[in-house]
Protein backbone atom coordinates (compact mmCIF):
# COMPACT_ATOMS: atom_id res chain seq x y z
CA UNK A 1 0.00 0.00 0.00
CA UNK A 2 1.26 3.47 -0.94
CA UNK A 3 0.68 5.01 2.49
CA UNK A 4 2.63 2.29 4.27
CA UNK A 5 5.50 2.52 1.79
CA UNK A 6 5.64 6.30 2.24
CA UNK A 7 5.68 5.93 6.02
CA UNK A 8 8.52 3.39 5.83
CA UNK A 9 10.52 5.59 3.43
CA UNK A 10 10.17 8.68 5.63
CA UNK A 11 11.01 6.87 8.88
CA UNK A 12 13.97 4.98 7.41
CA UNK A 13 15.43 7.91 5.46
CA UNK A 14 15.34 10.24 8.47
CA UNK A 15 16.82 7.66 10.87
CA UNK A 16 19.57 6.54 8.49
CA UNK A 17 20.28 10.13 7.46
CA UNK A 18 20.81 10.96 11.14
CA UNK A 19 22.98 7.87 11.61
CA UNK A 20 25.09 8.88 8.62
CA UNK A 21 25.79 12.34 10.08
CA UNK A 22 26.77 10.77 13.42
CA UNK A 23 29.32 8.67 11.51
CA UNK A 24 30.77 11.84 9.99
CA UNK A 25 29.15 11.45 6.56
CA UNK A 26 26.46 13.54 4.81
CA UNK A 27 22.86 12.53 5.57
CA UNK A 28 22.32 12.00 1.84
CA UNK A 29 24.58 8.92 1.91
CA UNK A 30 22.46 7.22 4.56
CA UNK A 31 19.28 7.98 2.61
CA UNK A 32 20.76 6.43 -0.55
CA UNK A 33 21.99 3.30 1.22
CA UNK A 34 18.70 2.66 3.04
CA UNK A 35 17.02 2.60 -0.38
CA UNK A 36 19.24 -0.33 -1.37
CA UNK A 37 18.44 -2.12 1.91
CA UNK A 38 14.68 -1.57 1.60
CA UNK A 39 14.57 -2.37 -2.12
CA UNK A 40 14.55 -5.66 -4.07
CA UNK A 41 18.36 -5.95 -3.82
CA UNK A 42 18.10 -6.83 -0.08
CA UNK A 43 14.76 -7.00 1.80
CA UNK A 44 12.27 -6.09 -0.95
CA UNK A 45 10.07 -4.04 1.40
CA UNK A 46 9.79 -1.13 -1.03
CA UNK A 47 9.15 -1.52 -4.75
CA UNK A 48 9.29 1.24 -7.35
CA UNK A 49 5.66 1.89 -8.24
CA UNK A 50 4.63 4.48 -10.83
CA UNK A 51 3.29 6.76 -8.09
CA UNK A 52 6.54 6.64 -6.11
CA UNK A 53 8.49 7.21 -9.32
CA UNK A 54 6.46 10.36 -10.08
CA UNK A 55 6.95 11.60 -6.51
CA UNK A 56 10.68 10.98 -6.90
CA UNK A 57 10.75 13.09 -10.07
CA UNK A 58 8.99 15.91 -8.23
CA UNK A 59 11.62 15.55 -5.50
CA UNK A 60 14.58 16.07 -7.81
CA UNK A 61 12.82 18.94 -9.59
CA UNK A 62 12.16 20.70 -6.27
CA UNK A 63 15.75 20.05 -5.20
CA UNK A 64 17.09 21.84 -8.28
CA UNK A 65 14.44 24.58 -7.93
CA UNK A 66 15.77 25.26 -4.42
CA UNK A 67 19.31 25.36 -5.81
CA UNK A 68 18.17 28.01 -8.28
CA UNK A 69 16.54 30.02 -5.49
CA UNK A 70 19.83 29.96 -3.56
CA UNK A 71 21.94 30.99 -6.54
CA UNK A 72 23.62 34.38 -6.34
CA UNK A 73 23.32 35.77 -9.89
CA UNK A 74 26.34 38.06 -9.49
CA UNK A 75 28.46 35.15 -8.26
CA UNK A 76 27.08 33.00 -11.06
CA UNK A 77 28.25 35.57 -13.63
CA UNK A 78 31.68 35.81 -12.02
CA UNK A 79 32.16 32.03 -12.19
CA UNK A 80 31.30 31.73 -15.90
CA UNK A 81 34.92 31.12 -16.91
CA UNK A 82 35.49 28.59 -14.12
CA UNK A 83 32.22 26.79 -14.93
CA UNK A 84 33.25 26.51 -18.58
CA UNK A 85 36.63 24.99 -17.66
CA UNK A 86 35.07 22.53 -15.20
CA UNK A 87 32.19 21.58 -17.50
CA UNK A 88 34.26 21.07 -20.65
CA UNK A 89 37.23 19.27 -19.07
CA UNK A 90 34.75 17.22 -17.07
CA UNK A 91 33.34 16.04 -20.41
CA UNK A 92 36.52 15.52 -22.44
CA UNK A 93 38.32 13.14 -20.05
CA UNK A 94 35.44 10.69 -19.43
CA UNK A 95 34.47 10.88 -23.12
CA UNK A 96 37.98 9.88 -24.21
CA UNK A 97 38.49 7.17 -21.58
CA UNK A 98 34.98 5.76 -22.06
CA UNK A 99 35.52 5.62 -25.82
CA UNK A 100 38.91 3.89 -25.47
CA UNK A 101 37.48 1.32 -23.07
CA UNK A 102 34.59 0.71 -25.46
CA UNK A 103 37.05 0.05 -28.28
CA UNK A 104 39.06 -2.22 -25.95
CA UNK A 105 36.01 -4.43 -25.27
CA UNK A 106 35.19 -4.59 -29.00
CA UNK A 107 32.22 -2.24 -29.14
CA UNK A 108 31.47 -0.63 -32.50
CA UNK A 109 32.64 2.95 -33.08
CA UNK A 110 29.22 4.45 -32.39
CA UNK A 111 28.69 2.22 -29.33
CA UNK A 112 32.10 3.25 -27.94
CA UNK A 113 31.39 6.95 -28.54
CA UNK A 114 27.99 6.54 -26.89
CA UNK A 115 29.61 4.90 -23.85
CA UNK A 116 32.01 7.83 -23.58
CA UNK A 117 29.14 10.32 -23.82
CA UNK A 118 27.16 8.51 -21.17
CA UNK A 119 30.14 8.63 -18.81
CA UNK A 120 30.46 12.37 -19.60
CA UNK A 121 26.99 13.13 -18.26
CA UNK A 122 26.59 14.57 -14.79
CA UNK A 123 23.70 15.13 -12.40
CA UNK A 124 24.35 17.50 -9.52
CA UNK A 125 21.08 16.89 -7.64
CA UNK A 126 22.89 14.71 -5.07
CA UNK A 127 25.77 17.18 -4.92
CA UNK A 128 23.33 20.07 -4.39
CA UNK A 129 21.79 18.31 -1.39
CA UNK A 130 25.22 17.57 0.10
CA UNK A 131 26.58 21.07 -0.55
CA UNK A 132 23.49 22.54 1.06
CA UNK A 133 23.93 20.26 4.05
CA UNK A 134 27.59 21.21 4.62
CA UNK A 135 27.04 24.90 3.91
CA UNK A 136 28.78 25.25 0.54
CA UNK A 137 25.92 25.73 -1.90
CA UNK A 138 25.97 29.54 -1.70
CA UNK A 139 29.71 29.86 -2.33
CA UNK A 140 31.91 30.51 -5.35
CA UNK A 141 32.50 26.75 -5.55
CA UNK A 142 28.75 26.06 -5.46
CA UNK A 143 28.06 28.57 -8.24
CA UNK A 144 30.85 27.05 -10.35
CA UNK A 145 29.45 23.54 -9.88
CA UNK A 146 25.92 24.58 -10.88
CA UNK A 147 27.15 26.52 -13.90
CA UNK A 148 29.33 23.60 -15.01
CA UNK A 149 26.34 21.25 -14.71
CA UNK A 150 24.30 23.42 -17.10
CA UNK A 151 27.19 23.50 -19.61
CA UNK A 152 27.68 19.74 -19.22
CA UNK A 153 24.01 19.05 -19.92
CA UNK A 154 23.93 21.22 -23.06
CA UNK A 155 27.15 19.82 -24.57
CA UNK A 156 26.37 16.17 -23.81
CA UNK A 157 22.78 16.34 -25.09
CA UNK A 158 23.81 18.07 -28.33
CA UNK A 159 26.68 15.58 -28.79
CA UNK A 160 24.25 12.74 -28.17
CA UNK A 161 22.00 14.16 -30.91
CA UNK A 162 24.95 14.06 -33.33
CA UNK A 163 25.71 10.42 -32.45
CA UNK A 164 22.08 9.35 -32.81
CA UNK A 165 21.69 11.12 -36.15
CA UNK A 166 24.86 9.64 -37.65
CA UNK A 167 24.24 6.15 -36.23
CA UNK A 168 21.05 5.82 -38.25
CA UNK A 169 18.49 6.75 -35.57
CA UNK A 170 15.56 8.89 -36.62
CA UNK A 171 16.88 12.13 -35.14
CA UNK A 172 16.79 15.53 -36.85
CA UNK A 173 19.93 17.35 -35.74
CA UNK A 174 18.81 20.84 -36.88
CA UNK A 175 15.56 20.35 -34.94
CA UNK A 176 17.50 19.29 -31.81
CA UNK A 177 19.66 22.41 -31.99
CA UNK A 178 16.66 24.65 -32.69
CA UNK A 179 14.86 23.30 -29.61
CA UNK A 180 17.87 24.10 -27.40
CA UNK A 181 18.00 27.66 -28.72
CA UNK A 182 14.24 28.04 -28.19
CA UNK A 183 14.47 26.83 -24.59
CA UNK A 184 17.30 29.10 -23.46
CA UNK A 185 15.97 32.13 -25.33
CA UNK A 186 12.46 31.82 -23.92
CA UNK A 187 13.62 30.72 -20.45
CA UNK A 188 15.72 33.87 -20.10
CA UNK A 189 13.03 36.19 -21.52
CA UNK A 190 10.22 34.64 -19.46
CA UNK A 191 12.34 34.58 -16.30
CA UNK A 192 13.33 38.21 -16.78
CA UNK A 193 10.01 39.78 -17.84
CA UNK A 194 7.06 37.49 -17.13
CA UNK A 195 7.91 35.68 -13.86
CA UNK A 196 8.06 38.84 -11.65
CA UNK A 197 4.83 40.13 -13.23
CA UNK A 198 3.08 36.76 -12.78
CA UNK A 199 4.06 36.53 -9.10
CA UNK A 200 2.77 40.04 -8.35
CA UNK A 201 -0.55 39.38 -10.10
CA UNK A 202 -1.12 35.86 -8.73
CA UNK A 203 -0.61 36.76 -5.05
CA UNK A 204 -3.52 39.19 -5.27
CA UNK A 205 -5.99 36.30 -5.60
CA UNK A 206 -8.22 36.03 -2.54
CA UNK A 207 -7.17 32.47 -1.60
CA UNK A 208 -4.54 31.01 0.70
CA UNK A 209 -0.85 30.36 -0.16
CA UNK A 210 -0.98 32.09 -3.55
CA UNK A 211 2.75 32.89 -3.56
CA UNK A 212 3.96 29.32 -3.06
CA UNK A 213 1.39 28.08 -5.59
CA UNK A 214 2.61 30.63 -8.14
CA UNK A 215 6.23 29.60 -7.50
CA UNK A 216 5.43 25.91 -7.98
CA UNK A 217 3.48 26.67 -11.17
CA UNK A 218 6.56 28.45 -12.54
CA UNK A 219 8.82 25.59 -11.44
CA UNK A 220 6.72 22.85 -13.05
CA UNK A 221 6.07 24.79 -16.29
CA UNK A 222 9.78 25.56 -16.73
CA UNK A 223 10.57 21.86 -16.07
CA UNK A 224 7.98 20.72 -18.60
CA UNK A 225 9.23 23.23 -21.18
CA UNK A 226 12.82 22.01 -20.71
CA UNK A 227 11.75 18.39 -21.03
CA UNK A 228 9.80 19.08 -24.23
CA UNK A 229 12.80 20.81 -25.82
CA UNK A 230 15.20 17.98 -25.01
CA UNK A 231 16.86 19.68 -22.01
CA UNK A 232 16.79 17.83 -18.68
CA UNK A 233 13.74 18.86 -16.62
CA UNK A 234 16.03 19.63 -13.67
CA UNK A 235 17.72 22.38 -15.72
CA UNK A 236 14.30 23.94 -16.30
CA UNK A 237 13.59 23.80 -12.56
CA UNK A 238 16.97 25.39 -11.86
CA UNK A 239 16.23 28.26 -14.28
CA UNK A 240 12.82 28.73 -12.63
CA UNK A 241 14.52 29.06 -9.25
CA UNK A 242 16.99 31.61 -10.61
CA UNK A 243 14.16 33.67 -12.13
CA UNK A 244 12.46 33.93 -8.70
CA UNK A 245 15.77 34.46 -6.84
CA UNK A 246 16.03 38.00 -8.23
CA UNK A 247 12.58 39.00 -6.90
CA UNK A 248 11.59 40.18 -3.43
CA UNK A 249 9.71 36.90 -2.91
CA UNK A 250 12.88 34.79 -2.90
CA UNK A 251 13.18 34.11 0.85
CA UNK A 252 9.53 33.32 1.49
CA UNK A 253 9.36 30.98 -1.49
CA UNK A 254 12.61 29.28 -0.45
CA UNK A 255 11.43 28.58 3.10
CA UNK A 256 8.09 27.13 2.05
CA UNK A 257 9.39 25.08 -0.89
CA UNK A 258 12.17 23.66 1.28
CA UNK A 259 9.57 22.51 3.82
CA UNK A 260 7.44 20.83 1.16
CA UNK A 261 10.42 19.24 -0.61
CA UNK A 262 12.35 17.85 2.35
CA UNK A 263 9.31 16.63 4.26
CA UNK A 264 8.28 14.07 1.63
CA UNK A 265 9.40 14.40 -2.01
CA UNK A 266 13.19 14.60 -1.59
CA UNK A 267 13.36 11.59 0.81
CA UNK A 268 11.39 9.57 -1.76
CA UNK A 269 13.84 10.64 -4.48
CA UNK A 270 16.92 9.59 -2.50
CA UNK A 271 15.39 6.29 -1.37
CA UNK A 272 14.17 5.29 -4.82
CA UNK A 273 17.67 5.64 -6.29
CA UNK A 274 18.70 2.78 -4.01
CA UNK A 275 15.45 0.87 -4.55
CA UNK A 276 16.09 0.78 -8.31
CA UNK A 277 19.24 -1.32 -7.83
CA UNK A 278 19.10 -4.94 -9.00
CA UNK A 279 22.06 -7.23 -8.27
CA UNK A 280 20.63 -10.39 -9.86
CA UNK A 281 22.63 -11.92 -12.70
CA UNK A 282 25.52 -9.45 -12.63
CA UNK A 283 28.12 -11.59 -10.80
CA UNK A 284 29.93 -12.38 -14.07
CA UNK A 285 30.03 -8.65 -14.90
CA UNK A 286 31.75 -7.56 -11.66
CA UNK A 287 35.17 -6.90 -13.32
CA UNK A 288 33.51 -4.66 -15.94
CA UNK A 289 31.51 -2.86 -13.25
CA UNK A 290 34.69 -2.21 -11.22
CA UNK A 291 36.66 -0.93 -14.24
CA UNK A 292 33.84 1.32 -15.49
CA UNK A 293 33.22 2.65 -11.97
CA UNK A 294 36.89 3.58 -11.58
CA UNK A 295 36.87 5.26 -15.00
CA UNK A 296 33.61 7.08 -14.21
CA UNK A 297 34.77 8.38 -10.83
CA UNK A 298 38.38 9.31 -11.63
CA UNK A 299 37.77 10.95 -15.02
CA UNK A 300 35.08 13.30 -13.71
CA UNK A 301 36.99 14.01 -10.50
CA UNK A 302 40.27 14.73 -12.30
CA UNK A 303 38.70 16.55 -15.26
CA UNK A 304 36.60 18.82 -13.05
CA UNK A 305 39.47 19.41 -10.61
CA UNK A 306 41.92 20.35 -13.38
CA UNK A 307 39.35 22.76 -14.81
CA UNK A 308 38.81 24.36 -11.39
CA UNK A 309 42.56 24.59 -10.78
CA UNK A 310 43.06 26.32 -14.14
CA UNK A 311 40.38 28.81 -13.05
CA UNK A 312 42.38 29.64 -9.91
CA UNK A 313 40.79 27.53 -7.16
CA UNK A 314 42.87 25.99 -4.38
CA UNK A 315 43.74 22.28 -4.41
CA UNK A 316 41.00 21.24 -1.97
CA UNK A 317 38.37 23.43 -3.60
CA UNK A 318 39.33 22.05 -7.04
CA UNK A 319 39.02 18.46 -5.82
CA UNK A 320 35.72 19.33 -4.15
CA UNK A 321 34.38 20.83 -7.38
CA UNK A 322 35.60 17.79 -9.32
CA UNK A 323 33.94 15.40 -6.87
CA UNK A 324 30.63 17.28 -7.19
CA UNK A 325 30.58 16.38 -10.88
CA UNK A 326 31.06 12.63 -10.27
CA UNK A 327 27.41 11.67 -9.74
CA UNK A 328 25.71 10.65 -12.99
CA UNK A 329 22.25 10.24 -11.44
CA UNK A 330 19.04 10.45 -13.41
CA UNK A 331 20.64 12.28 -16.38
CA UNK A 332 22.87 9.28 -17.19
CA UNK A 333 19.96 6.89 -16.62
CA UNK A 334 17.91 8.78 -19.22
CA UNK A 335 20.82 8.65 -21.69
CA UNK A 336 21.34 4.93 -20.99
CA UNK A 337 17.65 4.26 -21.68
CA UNK A 338 17.98 6.19 -24.96
CA UNK A 339 21.00 4.06 -25.90
CA UNK A 340 19.12 0.86 -25.15
CA UNK A 341 16.15 1.97 -27.25
CA UNK A 342 18.41 2.90 -30.19
CA UNK A 343 20.53 -0.28 -30.03
CA UNK A 344 23.68 1.54 -28.91
CA UNK A 345 23.70 -0.43 -25.64
CA UNK A 346 23.09 -4.12 -25.12
CA UNK A 347 20.78 -5.21 -22.29
CA UNK A 348 23.79 -6.59 -20.43
CA UNK A 349 25.74 -3.34 -20.74
CA UNK A 350 22.65 -1.36 -19.74
CA UNK A 351 22.36 -3.39 -16.49
CA UNK A 352 26.07 -2.87 -15.82
CA UNK A 353 25.83 0.89 -16.37
CA UNK A 354 22.84 1.21 -14.02
CA UNK A 355 25.05 -0.20 -11.23
CA UNK A 356 27.96 2.06 -12.24
CA UNK A 357 25.65 5.10 -12.17
CA UNK A 358 24.48 4.13 -8.69
CA UNK A 359 28.09 3.73 -7.49
CA UNK A 360 29.00 7.22 -8.76
CA UNK A 361 25.96 8.58 -6.95
CA UNK A 362 26.78 6.88 -3.65
CA UNK A 363 30.47 7.92 -3.58
CA UNK A 364 29.78 11.59 -4.31
CA UNK A 365 28.59 12.72 -0.83
CA UNK A 366 31.61 11.26 1.04
CA UNK A 367 34.00 12.77 -1.54
CA UNK A 368 32.41 16.20 -1.11
CA UNK A 369 32.59 15.88 2.66
CA UNK A 370 36.24 14.85 2.43
CA UNK A 371 37.46 17.64 0.18
CA UNK A 372 35.34 20.44 1.63
CA UNK A 373 35.82 19.48 5.30
CA UNK A 374 38.90 21.69 5.74
CA UNK A 375 37.15 24.68 4.22
CA UNK A 376 34.08 23.98 6.33
CA UNK A 377 36.19 24.27 9.49
CA UNK A 378 37.64 27.56 8.24
CA UNK A 379 34.14 28.94 7.70
CA UNK A 380 33.10 27.88 11.22
CA UNK A 381 36.15 29.56 12.78
CA UNK A 382 35.56 32.81 10.92
CA UNK A 383 31.84 32.95 11.80
Structural class: mainly alpha
Our count of domains comes out at 1
Q: What letter string, H or E per element, gives the SSE order?
A: HHHHHHHHHHHHHHHH
Number of helices: 16
What would you note in describing this structure?
With 383 residues, this protein is mainly alpha-helical. The protein has one domain: Na+/H+ antiporter like fold, CATH 1.20.1530.20. It is 79% helix and 0% strand. The chain is built from 16 helices and no strands. Mean pLDDT is 87; it is low at 376-383.
Summarize the structure.
It is built from 16 helices and no strands. By secondary structure, the chain is an all-alpha fold.
Task: Explain the layout of strands and helices.
Blueprint: H1 2-22, H2 27-38, H3 50-69, H4 73-78, H5 80-104, H6 109-120, H7 125-133, H8 140-166, H9 173-202, H10 210-228, H11 233-245, H12 250-275, H13 286-310, H14 315-324, H15 329-341, H16 347-382
Helix pairs in contact: 1-2, 1-12, 2-12, 2-16, 3-11, 3-12, 5-6, 5-8, 5-13, 6-8, 7-16, 8-9, 8-14, 9-10, 9-11, 10-11, 10-12, 13-14, 13-16, 14-16, 15-16
List the defining traits of the structure above.
79% helix; Na+/H+ antiporter like fold; 383 residues; 16 helices; mainly alpha
